[in-house]
């Protein structure tokens, strides 16, 4: 029965490995083969071996060959029943055909045996007088029996079975020294001599070249076994001494082929690198990785060999990287040399067989569950979860995830634990609630809060959300407030939270707590309390609350505080008549006249009804007189007498002038007097008179100017086109000195001349237009008109024109298009209208009058 092999010892000393080695994830699990093999090794030592998917076979130091199943039990075959197939000395090499029917062995006794395991028909027993180190069977699976095999001594020879079972030998190559190793794949044979490695092409019957190997210092190359392995039909792995070379057999390209008489194929080393140990065997692992069995170069303190290692290496162009290295506990490892170990493999099953003289260990890829268990034991939970996600297995992903969460909580990595909950729990309410309690035990509900489910698909019981809120309230009031803003209010019992805030209210956090209360009150529908809280805080979110819940009826008594908080936002609400009645706003703003002025001034821009214009007159006088006169001019919704009284009380002369002017009559004269005596602006007085164009006003202005010589010229300049200048000229006293009078008179005369010229030109233009239009009219009336033959008289309905017949009477045509014979038109020269159209119009009028009776 197989037993587990210990691989954790440090070579040579037996002490445990370092923690760094233990943290490297193992690729393999190791099993020491027992059963019948154990009994054989009690009396003999293994010298060579080979592995087939059906069985194991090895040769011993005593020259015996044993075949066992993969559990180490002996299998009865021709090898165990016939002593002729036993060598007299140690077996050097064993090869098995791909079908598992024939075995080839060789030894230093000079014998090469080809043995059928279950048939003796094609057996061969050859005896050479030389040491035979290598033998290889034809890997071709199509041929039945053994038709070809290769033997290596001091040359490389191929033997082919011909007619009547006769063997024909053909020397392929001569070796430098002896042939040390042979490996056959398809048409290519790789072999090693004392000088290096060659590949022979059996199709072309030529060598593809020599790869010389570097001789180690103070060593001989032939003292090391050359390890071959074909990873595929064209890729050869070579491990010799401490160097590994990856070679690809490829066809020469056109440039290479043209350079001379060279073979079609070439051996191209794509990667070469050295190892820290001597190589006892190698095998493919993945596309770019190898499994290498190594013999350590170092020796123990008492100069004994150290434990062998098995290493997984990733190769690159001229370097490699050790993925992992396991130290192997092989029986009697202190006694062995590099050539005593060998490595076989079944690549399809990812099993590797480590063979030593007194031990046989199988390295298998570690299973998914075992790998996950190891990762869990070494706290590599993320990698364990990744393995389960990729490869499955019997261990539940959720189980590992919860172990990982516990590990993170224990190590105070609370945020990572919370993120993991979100990743693995999804919408599992029960698991969420269970894990929330774990965070509660560590007082770290704040860490998990951003990841808690809050949708309808997965909503926890209210108690769990309240626990989170209470922890925030205790340790992070700002976070508590933010959470209330983010979470839907249906997750928790708002009344419980309000009561808890009251119990734990702290003055240093008053602002945050009051805002939290405002939110909670709004969630509960207690909008009056919510508005009070926001206004107490002077928080502009009150406007969002008003808009969100249409609380326009609730703010009637809070208008002044809202304006104090943000006039712009407040007026956006107050100026909308659909939201709040302006009468309500005006009533609330009466105690604060400035706010009332701001409101009514803004309301006037959006509401043209003018309901509060009388009040606005008073407010403009008080807060912004510059807006009063433009307002008075454009508005018609105030009482003029009241506005005039206000303006008189404040001596607002321009406004008084406008209002008095609107009233007209005596009031207009009063307005003119204000301009002359209070404002003292003669230009304004002139413009006022022009605007009203009243004779009494002009007389007042002229009388006033006659008394003041300095303004006479200004009046003269202003009255042109309005008043006869004689009126003011007659008022001038003889000898009175009037500045600039001459210029004003000249200007006045020039203006009158200009007006006369304008009238003459206009008359000429009018007269020219009249004659031109009259000429056009006469010409149009004299122009001939087209009359078709089929045209009938509108009176007698007879054709007015006939072909080739002279016209008996003149024709009369009206502009409407009707044509008459001249006799058919009574009173021809006194009749300006078409009788037909005129009678039709009379009929329509009669029709209308009849329908109206």
Automatic annotation (TrEMBL):
PROSITE patterns: CHCR (PS50236), ZF_RING_2 (PS50089). InterPro entries: Beta-prop_Vps41, Clathrin_H-chain/VPS_repeat, TPR-like_helical_dom_sf, Vps41/Vps8, WD40/YVTN_repeat-like_dom_sf, WD40_repeat_dom_sf, Znf_RING. GO terms for molecular function: zinc ion binding. Residues 793-838 form the RING-type domain. Gene3D superfamilies: Tetratricopeptide repeat domain, YVTN repeat-like/Quinoprotein amine dehydrogenase. The keyword Transport applies. Its main location: other. Residues 1-28 are annotated as: Disordered. Coiled coil: none annotated. This is Vacuolar protein sorting-associated protein 41 homolog. It comes from Drosophila lebanonensis (Fruit fly). The gene is LOC115625935.
């Amino acid at each position: 029965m197989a037993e587990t092999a210990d691989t954790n010892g440090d070579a040579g000393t037996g002490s445990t490995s370092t923690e760094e080695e233990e943290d490297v994830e193992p690729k393999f699990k190791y099993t020491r083969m027992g059963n019948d093999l154990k009994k054989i090794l009690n009396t003999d030592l293994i010298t060579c071996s080979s592995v087939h998917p059906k069985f194991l076979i090895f040769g011993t130091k005593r020259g015996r060959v044993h075949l066992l199943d993969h559990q180490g039990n002996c299998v009865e075959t021709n090898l165990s029943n016939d002593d002729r197939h036993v060598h007299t000395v140690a077996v050097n090499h064993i090869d098995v055909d791909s079908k598992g029917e024939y075995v080839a062995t060789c030894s230093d006794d000079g014998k090469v045996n080809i043995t059928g395991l279950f048939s003796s028909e094609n057996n061969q027993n050859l005896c050479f007088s030389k040491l035979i180190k290598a033998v290889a069977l034809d890997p071709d699976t199509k041929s039945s029996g053994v038709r070809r095999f290769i033997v290596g001594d001091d040359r490389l020879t191929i033997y082919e079975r011909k007619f009547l079972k006769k063997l024909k030998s053909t020397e392929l190559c001569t070796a430098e020294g002896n042939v040390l190793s042979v490996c056959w794949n398809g048409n290519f044979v790789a072999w090693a001599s004392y000088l290096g490695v060659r590949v022979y092409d059996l199709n072309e019957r030529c060598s593809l070249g020599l790869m010389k190997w570097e001789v180690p210092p103070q060593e001989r190359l032939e003292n090391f076994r050359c390890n071959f392995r074909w990873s595929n039909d064209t890729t050869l792995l070579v491990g010799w001494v401490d160097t590994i070379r990856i070679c690809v057999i490829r066809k020469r390209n056109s440039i290479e082929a043209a350079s001379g008489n060279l073979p079609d194929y070439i051996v191209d080393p794509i990667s070469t690198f050295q190892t820290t140990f001597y190589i006892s065997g190698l095998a493919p692992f993945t596309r770019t990785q190898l499994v290498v069995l190594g013999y350590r170069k170092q020796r123990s303190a008492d100069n004994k060999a150290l434990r062998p290692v098995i290493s997984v290496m990733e190769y690159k162009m001229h370097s490699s990287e050790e993925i992992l290295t396991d130290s192997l506990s092989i029986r009697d490892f202190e006694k062995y040399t590099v050539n005593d170990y060998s490595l076989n493999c079944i690549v399809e099953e990812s099993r590797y067989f480590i063979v030593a003289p007194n031990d046989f260990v199988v390295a298998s890829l570690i299973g998914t569950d075992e790998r996950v268990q190891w990762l869990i034991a070494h706290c590599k939970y993320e990698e364990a979860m990744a393995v389960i996600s990729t490869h499955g297995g019997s261990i539940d992903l959720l189980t590992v995830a919860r172990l990982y969460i516990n590990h993170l909580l224990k190590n105070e990595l609370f945020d990572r634990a919370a993120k993991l909950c979100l990743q693995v729990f999804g919408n599992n309410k029960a698991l969420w609630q269970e894990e929330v309690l774990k965070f509660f035990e560590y007082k770290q509900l704040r860490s998990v809060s951003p990841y808690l489910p809050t949708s309808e698909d997965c909503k926890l019981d209210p108690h769990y959300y309240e626990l989170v809120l209470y922890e925030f309230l205790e340790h992070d009031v700002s976070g508590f407030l933010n959470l209330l803003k983010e979470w839907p209010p249906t997750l928790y019992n708002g009344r419980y939270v309000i009561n808890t805030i009251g119990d734990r209210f702290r003055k240093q956090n008053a602002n945050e707590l009051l805002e939290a209360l405002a939110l909670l009150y709004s969630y509960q529908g207690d909008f009056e309390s919510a508005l009070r809280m926001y206004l107490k805080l002077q928080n502009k979110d009150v406007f969002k609350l008003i808009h969100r819940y249409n609380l326009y009826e609730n703010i009637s008594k809070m208008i002044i505080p809202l304006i104090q908080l943000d006039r712009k936002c407040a007026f956006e609400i107050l100026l909308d008549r659909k939201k709040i009645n302006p009468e309500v706003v005006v009533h609330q703003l009466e105690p604060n006249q400035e706010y009332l002025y701001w409101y009514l001034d803004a309301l006037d821009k959006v509401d043209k009804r003018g309901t509060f214009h009388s009040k606005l007159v008073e407010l403009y006088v008080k807060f912004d007189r510059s807006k009063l006169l433009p307002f008075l001019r454009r508005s018609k919704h105030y009482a003029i007498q009241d506005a005039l009284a206000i303006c008189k009380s404040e001596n607002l002369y321009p406004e008084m002038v406008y209002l008095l002017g609107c009233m007209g009559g005596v009031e207009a004269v009063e307005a003119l007097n204000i301009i002359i005596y209070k404002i003292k602006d003669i230009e304004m007085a002139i413009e006022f008179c022009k605007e009203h164009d009243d004779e009494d006003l002009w007389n007042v202005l002229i009388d006033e100017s006659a008394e003041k010589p300095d303004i006479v010229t200004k009046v003269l300049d202003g009255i042109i086109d309005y008043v006869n200048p004689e009126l003011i000229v007659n008022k001038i006293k003889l000898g009175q000195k009037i500045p600039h009078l001459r210029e004003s008179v000249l200007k006045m005369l020039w203006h009158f001349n200009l007006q006369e010229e304008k009238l003459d030109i206009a008359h000429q233009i009018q007269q020219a237009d009249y004659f031109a239009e009259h000429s056009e009219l006469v010409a149009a009336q004299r122009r001939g008109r087209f009359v078709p033959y089929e045209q009938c008289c509108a009176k007698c309905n007879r054709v007015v024109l006939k072909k080739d017949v002279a016209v008996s009477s003149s024709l009369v045509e009206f502009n409407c298009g009707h044509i008459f014979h001249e006799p058919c038109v009574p009173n021809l020269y006194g009749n300006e209208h078409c009788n037909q159209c005129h009678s039709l119009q009379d009929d329509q009028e009669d029709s209308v009058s009849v329908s109206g009776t």
